[in-house]
Each structure stands twice: as structure tokens, then as C-alpha cells.
Specification:
409 residues, 31% strand, five-stranded mixed beta sheet
Amino acid sequence: MMTERLYYDDAHLMEFEARVLAVEKLNDSRVAVLLDRTAFYPTGGGQPSDTGTLGEARVIECIDAEDRILHIIEGPLPEIGQHIVGKIDRLRRLTHLQQHTGQHILSQAFQKLFGAETRGFRIMDRISEIDLALAAPCEEMIARAIELANQIVWEDRPIKIHYLAAREASRLALRREPTRGGILRLVEIEDFDLTPCGGTHAKRTGEVGLILARSWERAKRMTRLRFVAGIRALADYTQINRIAHRVALMLSSERDDLADRVARLLEENKGLAKRVRELETQLAHREIEEMLTTAPRRADGAGVIARLFPQRSPEALKSLALAARSFPKTVALLGSYEADSAYLIFARSADLDEEMNRLIERACAEIGGRGGGRADFAQGGGKGDLKRVEATLQMIACELLGETHKLET
């Protein structure tokens, strides 16, 4: 039972009448309806299927099953032999039509300008992607292709559909060689592009409206270009313009001056961040100096700081540990805790020989975690209640001091 594909000859057909040939239950328990003719486009060629209604039921997807198109529905089931009306979701069809036609135009623009073939195409929820055989892309190349593509759009060139045998079509200047035999459907953009395609397309290039490049990147030895066309291009511009105006208002700037304003702010932020780091270093140095005044000392004069802080960030703890290393004969056993998590840093000055990496491994093992590092600086963490973490730090401190030590918090 074959399905006549009405969208092949008229992609603007949004309502049609057909006869129900079969109603099938698929392996995934979904229900599929087979019609003698349909205007619904099934998923394929990088283009998602149409949606809409079939009688009183909702068509949520269409599947291409060789010569048949299966309409996946939700709702009342039609009867076999029934004549039924199908309605296409107009906005979804128009959006996909614009993206697919825009892709043909854009692909040929890259082919003409740089000899870059299109190796892949996908229409997604908000944007579309094409994969180009473009080895060394740059902003200027992307801009030139977009400019040419939009020139073709604005010239409002006619788009025609032709049907030819594969052997005859192979003699033509096709942008892409056919992948199958038999009768081929060729989409022609007048004096610009000719390629085999089964998708839905505009009648004239002007229907595409506008093509915009959103972003591009190197991917799998190709260039992946993300673009929007038509309705999506307008929505994208509207959103970007709204964001730009909001940011301009926040910065008391004009929209067109945003780039320079942000560049100045980033430069200022670099200077402020540098100053903050300097102040943090000074503060950490003074904090360690104060701790050393009360820290217990060994017979050789080495001071052992063992301190546990509530909710101190790893960055702040690291600043303290680095500051401790700048003092002679100093060992710092530092930790922070929050809920049932603990973070530890052990550090020592260069004139001592205790191995902090071995000590941190033992401490983390005691609290069910892991740690490592160098002989003079090591860090790690684990889980456990506060008492267990305190006991672990006290144990390590006592070993270094050779006496009972009470941990400060």
C-alpha cells in the first residue's frame, strides 16, 4: 500500500482529504495510520516531520517506511476505508520550509565561493546546522557566504521541482550527487542551485526572508555552522536586540557602544581582581602570623598550626596554606567543613622535611576520602562528622608535636 506524497508538488498545501488504508499498532505501542495520500512530511534528510491533525486525532510524528508514510496519532482512531481530513501545523511547516530552502541557498553559497561541500544538515528546535568540508574557516569567509545567500534570497528567484531518471540527472551540474537510482526529485533555484532533495521548499527564495549565521566551530575536521532563517531569524534578532537593550541600560550605554564598554569593564575587572588577590595574600599572611603566636612549638622551634574553619572556601584555605609556607619552621594543618564534607590542606616551609603528601593521605583515609600532593604541599577531602574530622587533625598534629594537642576551631 503506497502513499502518494502531496508535499512533493505543493509544499504550501496545508489541508487535504485522504482515505484510511490501515491502522496499525507499532512495537512501541504507538498507533500509526496509513493513508492513500498525504501532505504530511515524514522525518528525513535532516528535516523533522510535520505535525497537525487527522480528523479528531493529533498527529505527533510521521515516519517514512519506504513507499509508505505512517502517521503517529494520539486521540480517536479512524476507521479503515474512512475519508478523513488532514491539517498541517502551518507555522511548523513554514518554519521548516524556510530552514530547508535556506540550507540549499547557504550550501551552494559555500560551494561557489570556497568549493566547500555540505556533508550534513539538521533542523533542530531553534536553530539549524550544516557541516561543511571547510578546512580553515574564518569570520570573513562566513560573512561572504551569508552575504551571497541573502542576495539570492532578496532577488526572489523562482524555485522549481523537476523529476528525472537518475541516469539523466547525473549528466546535469548537480551540487550533490544522487545516492539512489530511479526517478529523482530535483529542486532548482533559478541560475544558482540544482540538487536532489525530497524535503519541503519555498516557491521563491524571497519566502526565506533572511539567513543569519549564529555561530560556527571546527568539528570532526569540518566546519559546523549554526544558522537561522525566516521566522527563526526574526525571533533570534528580537531576542538578541532585547538582551542588548537591557545590558545597555544596566551599563548606562548605547547599544552600539556595548562592545567597547564591556571591554573597558573587563580591563577594570582584571585590575580589581589583581588588587583583591594582593589583599587576600596580605590578609592570609597576617592571619598565619597571628596563629603562630599561639601555636605550639617543638623542641626544634617548629610551629605547628592545626586549625579547622567552618565553611571556609578551598581558595581561602589555599591562600592560608601558601602564606604559611613563607614563614620559617612552620607546618600548617588546615581544614574546612560544611555539613558532612571536609576539605584539608597540609603545607610546610622549605626548611622542614615532613612529607605532607603522606600525612594528607592518612588523614583523608581516616575520614573516608582521598588526597595527595607534594612533600611540601598537599590537599584532599572526604566525608564524616565534625568530631571525626577534628580527631583526625588532632592525631596528625600530635604526631608532629610528639605530645597531646588540642585543636583550635
